[in-house]
Amino acid sequence: MEERYLQKIIENEQSTKSAHHRIDKLESEIGEIKELTIAVKEIAMETKATREDVNDMNGRLKVVEEKPAKNWETIVKSVLGALGSGLVGAGLALILK
Questions:
Q1: What does 19-74 look like in DSSP terms, one character per residue?
Q2: Distance CA 28, CA 31 (A)
Q3: pLDDT single digits (tens) 51-91
């Protein structure tokens, strides 16, 4: 009967050693997962900051792109106004002559 108990004790010790080895391995893997989680969080924060910068640049670029169009519209309005004024002036000159 003592031999049976001795065998059980040996089996339990082996099982315990195996369990400790697996626990140690899991602790190491959990540490790596924590580091990975922190890295992903940092990447997400950097991505958010980059997206905000890009949105800001898009807004400024839109203003820069619209400026020549506004200038062109002003030039066209001025030229059309000058031509219109010239035609009206010429018409009045012919009528008053």
A1: HHHHHHHHHHHHHHHHHHHHHHHHHHHHHHHHHHHHHHHHHHHHHHHHHHHHHHHH
A2: 5
A3: 999 999 999 999 888 888 888 888 989 989 989 898 888 88
Q: How far apart are the C-alpha atoms of 8 and 40, rounded to whole Å? A: 47
The Cα–Cα gap between 50 and 71 comes to 32
Q: What angle do CA 49, 52, 54 make, to 5 degrees?
A: 110
Task: State the chain's mean pLDDT as an integer.
Answer: 91
Closest-CA residue to 19 (of 27, 55, 8): 27
The C-alpha atoms of residue 82 and residue 59 are separated, in whole angstroms, by 35
Separation CA 27–CA 19 (nearest Å): 12
Stated pTM of the model: 0.53
* Residue given tokens 């900051």 in the structure block: 49
